[in-house]
Amino acid sequence: NRYLVVDCKMVLTAYNNYVNEKDPVKSKQFLAEHIKALKNQIEELSKKKYQELKEIYKHTPDFVIMYVPIEMAYLCALEYQKDLGIFASGKKVMVATASSLIPILKTIEQLWNIYLAQKHTEEILKIGRILHEKVSNFSVNMGQVKGSLNAALNHYEDARRTFDGKGGILSQVKKLEELGAKSSKQLPEIDFEEKE
Questions:
Q1: Sequence-ordered strand ranges (E) for 34-118
Q2: CB-based contacts of 88, cutoff 8 Å, min separation 6
Q3: Which of 14, 66, 103, 172 gets the most CB atoms within 10 Å of its CB?
Q4: Rounded to a whole number, what is the distance in angstroms from the first to the last CA of the chain?
Q5: Which residues touch 71 (CB under 8 Å, ≥6 apart)?
Q6: Angle at the Cα of 94 (from 108 to 64), degrees rounded to 5?
Q7: pTM for the complete prediction?
């Protein structure tokens, strides 16, 4: 789900005139027109802001590629207008030729892969933090459960001693039975021993 805008609507009429012209004065004039045409095309692409289109702006670099199909058309322009690449870059346009387009695309692909790996790493770290917090909370909760179970066991032991310990309820009831205060019901046997 990544997009890269490559514009290849390059008009090279002035370049063709420059290459085919024998008169050096006219040839220089056609070269100036060619450089101007390249700059105009860069300006036009910059104004269109393809990379900001609603459908793709989250999935594309912040520049467009202007493809010049004839390598020499761009190189001769660069020879006489050395800052043409900087001019294009300032307008968020990258100029590519037949020999540079594939390496540019491969580089962008590599950068996207690095970006995705970084995003996955960030997501893993986020999930790891959440999981760490859950494990920490689980440990605290288990400590509370253990404390509650220990407290319940202590209460159980206290209740058992109150019931059948020395001077406990059971021994008092047996004394009452010996003194004749016996009901019609038989006292049940309560086994406080743990079963294996």
A1: 64-68, 93-97
A2: 42, 66, 94, 95
A3: 66
A4: 62
A5: 97, 98, 99
A6: 75
A7: 0.60
The answer to whether residues 67 and 10 touch, using CB atoms and an 8 Å cutoff, is yes
In the block, residue with structure tokens 């046997």:
189
Q: How many residues does the chain have?
A: 196
Both structure tokens of 184: 């019609």
- Radius of gyration, CA atoms only, the chain: 43
| Calpha distance 128→165 (Å, rounded) | 52
In the block, which residue shows the tokens 């020395």?
166
Give the C-alpha separation, 89 to 80, whole Å. Answer: 18
Position 116 scores a pLDDT of 84
Is residue 164 within 8 A of residue 192, CB to CB? The reply is: yes
Report the alpha-carbon distance of residue 135 to residue 155 in Å, rounded: 30
